[in-house]
Design brief:
This protein is α+β, with helices and mostly antiparallel strands. 18% of the residues lie in helices and 49% in strands. The protein is globular and about 50 Å long. The termini are far apart.
């Protein structure tokens, strides 16, 4: 019986040896991995993806190339190149992306800034510099200049408010129809 146990242990060691022993190939592979210096941000996460289903059973995902905590509790996180993908009640896909963002888990808000782009299916698109999304109340708003395109044409406004889970879109301040060339130039 002891001989069988010893033989089994010896066989196990032979099978596991390539994984336990140092190997030039493994060292070479590890050395080929990209090295990222995050400085003092040792709690940062690269290429973070958060997926889930909202209270209406619709899937969503929030991606970020870099995620780092803003406070010690981790309730607020800073996002680099965030992209939010979700589905509206009528089934249209929504994508919102920006250069930067801050997600507050307690308040269920996502503040986006820097080249914010909102695409609703293939029907509507909107560009602005900053947007605040209230996920719990299913609202978004921004008080920076907005350029929008849709079946109505192209429109420029001082801000916007999106409510009722994406059913209503209100343009704020001075609003005017503009040409395609102005839309492609982006907000001023």
């Amino acid at each position: 019986m002891a001989f069988i146990a010893l033989a089994a242990a010896g066989s196990g060691a032979l099978v596991l040896w390539p994984y336990l022993a140092p190997s030039g190939d493994r060292l070479h592979i590890a050395a080929a991995l990209p090295v990222v210096d995050l400085g003092q941000d040792r709690d940062a996460v690269l290429n973070a993806v958060y997926t889930g289903i909202d209270r209406h059973g619709r899937p969503f995902s929030l991606r970020s190339s870099l995620l780092r905590p803003v406070d010690k509790e981790g309730d607020r996180v800073q996002l680099e190149l965030p992209q939010l993908n979700m589905t509206l009640a009528d089934g249209r896909p929504v994508t919102m992306r920006a250069n930067h963002g801050v997600y507050d888990q307690d308040q269920w808000t996502l503040a986006l800034s820097g080249d914010v782009l909102l695409d609703v299916g293939q029907d509507y698109s909107m560009k602005t510099e900053s947007t605040l999304l209230d996920i719990r109340k299913e609202r978004a708003e921004g008080n920076r200049p907005v350029l929008a395109a849709g079946p109505f044409g192209h429109l420029q406004a001082d801000g916007f408010r999106l409510g009722e889970g994406g059913k209503t879109l209100t343009f704020l301040g001075r609003s005017r129809l503009i040409s395609r060339e102005t839309f492609e130039a982006g907000p001023s």
